Amino acid sequence: MTKTATFAGGCFWCIEEAFANLPGVISTKSGLTGGHTEHPTYEDVHRGDTGHREAVEVVFDPGRVSYEKLVKHYFYQIDPTDPGGQFVDRGHAYTTAIYYHDPEQQATAEKLKSDLEKSGKFNGPIVTEVLPAKKFYDAEEYHQEYWKKHPERYKMYKLSSGRSEFLKKNWGTLAHT
């Protein structure tokens, strides 16, 4: 039996790539969620009037990887203290959130967020929201597995966005990516 986890962490290309090869992950998909507009497009979301965020849907085998491990891995991919977006990508569509699919996921996500807050790892408060999952809309095909389709472009984007530098500075290594 598989389960689903949904994470918004700024650019969905980066979050999808971070989870795609994690042992126990069956599949990943870039998409849009959390808003009020049905069947939004990427362009709709980035106009700022749909309430959606870029997100990644992760289908996983809980016998091989725990939801707790997925949430911890997620926190290694983002700046959980930035309320305005992630790195060079600004605006609501790029803000962070963990969308839970059941009460157990909610409790796990809230506990790990609290643990991170208490750890003192970051100077500011942890602003990543923990919210109930809403309908997930697949992003357009050209966004799916972008890092595979355009490896050089993707590598340059991730580097120039500031994400790689932030992760290395805060976690000491990119081993978690």
Describe it for me?
This protein is of the alpha+beta class and 177 residues long. Helix content is 37%, strand content 22%. It has helices at 12-20, 42-47, 67-75, 103-119, 146-149, 151-161, 163-171, and strands spanning 3-9, 25-33, 53-60, 85-86, 89-90, 96-100, 129-132, 137-138. It has a six-stranded mixed β-sheet with strand order 7-6-1-3-2-8, with helices on one face. Helix 3 packs across helix 4 (103-119).
Note the overall shape.
globular
User: Which band does the percent of strand residues land in?
Assistant: 15-25%
Strand arrangement across the biggest beta sheet: 7-6-1-3-2-8
Average pLDDT reading: 94
Indicate the CATH topology.
Answer: Peptide Methionine Sulfoxide Reductase, Chain A
Into how many domains do the coordinates divide?
A: 1
Give the beta-strand count. Answer: 8
Helicity level, as a percent range? 25-40%
Question: What Rg is obtained from the alpha carbons, in whole angstroms?
Answer: 15 Å
Distance between the termini: 26 Å
SSE topology string: EHEHEHEEEHEEHHH
Largest sheet: 6 strands, mixed
**Name of the CATH superfamily:** Peptide methionine sulphoxide reductase MsrA
- List the total number of helices: 7
Structural class call reads: alpha+beta
CATH first level: Alpha Beta
Assigned CATH architecture: 2-Layer Sandwich
Instruction: Detail the poorly predicted runs.
Output: none
